[in-house]
């Protein structure tokens, strides 16, 4: 059967959108919707296999899908694990091995790596893009098992319409953006649109009206330049419908008017998609920065080259064998070998022997200083802890008198305070402001509840004499946000009714909180923001020593001052107004008149664990300043 080059052109357009979004996000903010177009195309081919088969065989269909997906996936996973040996630190290498195992099981979307697809950690996960492959594989399995039965019972058209309607209704009713993005149940409607296009072709001749064809072309052309608030929302309906109309238009004609490069780009689109994200992630990790436009263009070209080569040399010859048992056995063996390699990397703790002794020592010295971190620090969406006395450190006789309250920056400080004789209760929750009635939306209402319970625990305990409040304040006090904006990386600040609020609301809430607790006779200790670097300091320093590069520079004093200015001003005003103690972290981490804030302390130890969390040395430095404000408190370090 002659190949349909019109469909190849749609594939080429979809992968171009994805490349544009990842390599040039400022130019193509809506490029991530290319994946939605791929889902529509997959739905078309699923329905076509059912429609054209004289006797649809689930086993034969799944074998064909494995033959299509397996070879390129195995090649890219192997190359990624090999590259990781030379580029990644032990902890990163362990993460990569686990990502590979999820990818081999087509389960990346079930345990999303890095959490939110638009969040900060996704850029460190070289195989996070396999989430879409997981969705497709799970839908293939569902189609093979369920679709033939549905079609026999209620016929194709009602089946596809039912699937589309139920799935889209579930999407509109869903609450978690992460779930709706990764869960195939909320993506089925896109596959169903492609299936409808395939089903309607015999009845319409595959040629919708001219106006509809023009509309689909114009609509698809606008997609990459429109930021549609994430493809997990109903906005994805627009490009999906445009893709279905365009697919319906070209599906019955094997076009000869499409240029060979476009056809080849479409045919190799799957392999190109597999190669591009690991290349971008490894580049950013190795060079400690995102690529420049010129470098991004080179990486794009390299991704296309590798993808086309993979298609011509590996995929096309194997696909020509039409699901032979020999090819399937080779793929199964390959899956097993890569899985064993990933298990060995994990079991070896990331093969730390790869690093020179000096580099390994730097990494070891900066490990988290908090001995009870996982026990005492709530990390969404993992361990949301109850507010109790379970995380009382250095407990002495009588009730606890000191409480440390805040987000992950408070947890980092706790490591230093634990090494003193201070008896204190830790109430910390990652990314959750110590402001009752407010929460960051990506942390959910568990954060809201935690803040409220912490507040009540402090307010109602007359034995609590002092409260140390520490947080990454610029996120909360310097995030001028409203319903349509805000720092997308960290989420939007909201009140208990779910309404987006400005940073002014957070400032007022902190002011009211300090006033109330001071009125109750409690000592309040506020801390201005600690430095925030552009890269993971411990990893960058280790990698610099590993590859014998020039020493890392410090943080520009100007950049640090700009980062903390607004939050520092608000904290100073509140402390002065209510007689609270204020520790200026800038005097500790950016002392004297130097133009840079140093990355290490007087003993040469790095002060940060990652971009903005204190290391053992940093926590010790800040905790000494905290202890100086507490009568009779002593330090052991």
Overall description:
With 637 residues, the protein is mainly α. It is 57% helix and 6% strand. It contains 24 helices and eleven strands. It has helices at residues 5-23, 34-52, 58-87, 90-104, 131-154, 156-173, 177-182, 188-204, 210-222, 237-250, 260-267, 269-287, 293-319, 325-347, 357-365, 373-376, 408-418, 444-460, 473-477, 503-519, 537-546, 557-578, 585-589, 616-627, and strands at 377-378, 392-393, 402-406, 424-429, 438-440, 466-470, 493-495, 523-527, 555-556, 581-583, 596-597. Strands 1, 2, 3, 4, 6, 8 and 10 form a seven-stranded mixed β-sheet that branches. β3 (402-406), α17 (408-418) and β4 form a beta-alpha-beta unit. α1 runs antiparallel to α2, α1 packs across α11 (260-267) and α6 runs antiparallel to α8. The N and C termini lie far apart (76 Å).
Termini Cα gap: 76 Å
Task: Give the overall silhouette.
Answer: globular
Low-confidence stretches: 114-120, 380-385, 480-488
In terms of DSSP E residues, the strand content is 5-15%
Radius of gyration: 28 Å
Binned, the helix content reads 55-70%
Find the count of extended strands (DSSP E, 2+ residues).
Answer: 11
